[in-house]
Amino acid sequence: MEMPKSTIGVPELVVEDLEYARKRKTYNMRIALVYAGLIAYFLVVAYPLLWMVISSFKSTEEIFNHSWSLPHTWLFENYVTAWNSGISSYFLNSVMVTGMTCMLTVLVSALGAYGLSRFDFRGKAFILVICLGGLMLSPQVSLIPLYNIIQKLGIYNTHWALILPYVAYRIPLTILLIRAYFLSIPKELEEAARLDGCTNLGILFRIFIPMSKPILLTTVILTAYYTWNEFMFAIIFIDDDSLRTIPAGLMQFRDALQTDWGVLLSGLTISAAPIVILFLFMQKYFIRGIASGSVK
Amino acid sequence: MIKPDKFVPYLYLLPALVFLLLVYIPIFQNIGDSMYNWSTFSPDKAFVGMDNYFTLFKDPVFYEALKNNILYAVISIVFQVFGGLIVAAVLEDKLIRKFSPIFRTVYFLPVVVSMTVIALLFSFFYNPEVGLLNQFLKMIGLNNLALPWLGDSETAIYAVIAVSQWQSIGYIAMLYIVSIQKISPELYEAAEMDGANKIKTFFHITVPATKEMTFVAVILTLTGAFTVFNEPYILTGGGPGTSSEVLSTYLYKTAFSKDMMGYASAIATVILIITLLISLVQMKIFKTGKED
Questions:
Q1: Which of A144, B123, B165, B186 fits a 20 to 30 Å CA distance from B203?
Q2: Better-predicted residue by pLDDT, A15 or A164
Q3: Closest Cα in chain B to A246
Q4: In a domain, B35, yes or no
Q5: How confident is the model at residue A4 (pLDDT cuts 50, 70, 90)?
Q6: Would residue B1 count as lying in a domain?
Q7: Contacts of B200 (CB under 8 A, 6+ apart)
């Protein structure tokens, strides 16, 4: 049903157009304002990070006197100096602790999630409650007893003093995430495998784990993110500077380099880079994990 | 479901349960520890009952720390929960959506940078003479606002809280974005046909439809605010004086600088009670929510 426009009087049409144009104008103004706000917030967030990277190529004198400009000469050697004055060892320690924590967390959680999703047994509900409860407990409350337990276990001032508590605090979330995924795997597959003579453990490793790659990747990313950035345990459970991970090591690094801002900023940039890069390339998994866990 | 040998499922859960001991034993042990006076280097513990708590409840530093945690909570709820929701709603608007991935990614970026890096970076910005913040304020003519932000006991806690907001608004916004994406687009189309403006649509569709996420966001920010440690520890160490002390930094100092382990355990118990109360409220609200 099309009404020919010519039935509307011409003067009326002009009035409508003017009205429309005026509305359009305020409308565009509003959108421009919203964009201005978004861009302002964008700058507030992005500029400090960009400044960190740009200034990491400057000399201290230049950072002081020409804070906002690009480096006069790009001092790549700041990175070499930072790497050689401690960052390399912190970085490798972090890689080691993060790698071990991720492996143990995924393995222990996958086993637990399999037990919780494929078997019926006494105490199952209770174990689920324990996992849920574990989500609510914050490490601050456990700090002192944990410090003593770690000393009694003889692992104080070793990487295990970080790895074991990290795994312990990560598994409540990862078990629940992996369990939810396992529950969605059709039973027929499992029954078929069983007919072929697959054992329980075989089913876990041949069917469940290969089919759950997305959620396993999500848990690895979440665990890596947590472990790489964890600070409180890292400064308390390790005393030896040569064993420190990046977040704790940076404090030492700052004290040692108080006057060398360029090198210090290079150190900060190196420390932040791995997880930022991981995030930029794996955004989907990152966000899925963070949204489903709603836990930082 | 399979019913094999009775102990098989427990074998699968055994490693996880052993690790969970590291989460649960300390909670109970901490409560016991708080009834003794003891230090790491002296082997004997003296039982003092509830004395540590009586002392704590008369300790002005404890109240200052608690007050700062409450301030943290209030400001974080306004900026992160309310601010995050607005940011998410704007980014999910169909007029903006074309560019929202880039905004979203950048807004989220600080979340993946460790607080150690961020706090050390911001201590450059807050530097009274050469820091960017005061340089910027002077540039736009606000010379009298160029304060020694971290060095003044009036402003230190606010400067610390600001850093947390800078990091976390993008995080809560991302949670809301996921939640808004689940709202049926037809609701928005219908509202548009009815001639509802954006603000009305926000309050009548977006806010109610993301109610559940708001609960989650409030719980997360509250728990975060009452357990915060890294930001004040790195930026001010709780100072000047005790002006930016929070419960966790006070706990840390009492335990590891003053070696008053029993007293520190009492502080930890207070943090435990606060976080448990928050969790209880959460469970209660979620339960009643389900019964609706």
A1: B165
A2: A164
A3: B116
A4: no
A5: very low
A6: no
A7: B191
| CATH code of the domain containing B137 | 1.10.3720.10
Has residue B16 been placed in a domain?
Answer: no
Top mean-pLDDT range of A166-170, A180-184, B141-145: A166-170
> How many angstroms separate the CA of residue A13 from the nearest CA in chain B?
22
> In chain A, whose CA is at the least distance from the CA of B217?
A294
Average pLDDT on B37-44 reads 81
Per CB-CB distance under 8 Å, the chain A contacts of B220 are 294-296
CB contact under 8 A, B109 and A294: no
User: What does the DSSP assignment read for chain B?
Assistant: -B--STTHHHHHHHHHHHHHHHHHHHHHHHHHHTTEE--SS----EE-TTHHHHHHTT-HHHHHHHHHHHHHHHHHIIIIIIHHHHHHHHHHSTTTTTTHHHHHHHHHHHHHS-HHHHHHHHHHHT-TTT-HHHHHHHHTT-GGG---TTTSTTTHHHHHHHHHHHHHHHHHHHHHHHHHTTS-HHHHHHHHHTT--HHHHIIIIIHHHTHHHHHHHHHHHHHHHHH--HHHHHHTTT-STTTT--HHHHHHHHHHTS--HHHHHHHHHHHHHHHHHHHHHHHHHHHHHHH-
| Shortest distance, CA B271 to any CA of chain A (angstroms) | 6
The reply to whether residue A229 touches residue B115, judged by beta carbons under 8 angstroms, is yes
> Which residues does chain B have within 8 Å of residue A279's beta carbon, measured at their own beta carbons?
108-109, 112
Structural domains counted in chain B:
1
Which residue type occupies B279?
A: S
Q: Who among B16, B264, B265 is closest to A112 (CB)?
A: B16
Q: Do B113 and A146 touch (CB under 8 A)?
A: no
A:B CB pairs within 8 Å: 240
DSSP state at residue A70:
P
CA distances from B35 to A218, B25, B264 (A): 42, 16, 11
Within a domain: B53? yes
- In sequence order, the 6+-apart residues with CB closer than 8 A to the CB of A122 are none
User: Position of tokens 């548009």?
Assistant: B192
Q: Domain of B220?
A: 45-291
Tokens of A135: 């989500």
Q: At what angle do helices B132-139 and B115-125 cross, to 10 degrees?
A: 40
- Chain A CB contacts of B164 under 8 Å are none
Contact assignment for B11 to A246 by CB distance below 8 Å: no
Considering the entire predicted model, what is its pTM? 0.90
Q: What angle do CA A259, A263, A267 make, to 5 degrees?
A: 125
Mark which residues 91-110 of B lie under 8 Å from A by CB. 91, 95-96, 99, 103, 105-110
φ and ψ at residue A258, rounded to 5 degrees: -60, -25
Closest residue of chain B to A237, computed from CA coordinates:
B256
Contact A280 B223 (CB under 8 A): no
Cβ–Cβ gap A279/B25 under 8 Å:
no
- On average, the pLDDT of chain B sits at 90
Q: Are A64 and B166 inside 8 Å of each other by CB?
A: no
> Which residues in chain B have Cβ-Cβ distances shorter than 8 Å to A271?
114, 116-117
**pLDDT digit string (tens) for B97-116?**
788 899 999 999 999 999 99
